[in-house]
């Protein structure tokens, strides 16, 4: 399984002043170094660094299951996550909300759960073992904010959004 950063084209466009999922420019803030996960590099934005706050919809088109919500991005260019294993932003909370989706971006009912960080990888892998599941989204268990998407290794190159 591979965790995927947010679509680099969307990220680049927003950093250049383009609109977010609600047609608005991103807001700017300065990180205090705690709880500001960038959805591109999948690391926390360092203390003192600027970051962007924006609305994102990690689906290709609006539809009933295409949730839109706030995300953070490093304001300056960062290297999109390409690592193996658990990205740093998935190591800072005691638990996460996961939901599996079909290839037409519909929730696979019965797959949503809040899972402890210690079993996150196993629970995501279990959902990806279902041939009807195309990907699993990982969200904040506290605020429901999108964190990242997991795909089978063979499908990992697909972008979010």
From TrEMBL:
Superkingdom classification of source: Bacteria
Pfam family, one: DUF1203
InterPro entries (UniProt xref): DUF1203
Protein name per its UniProtKB record: DUF1203 domain-containing protein
Species the sequence originates in: Jannaschia rubra
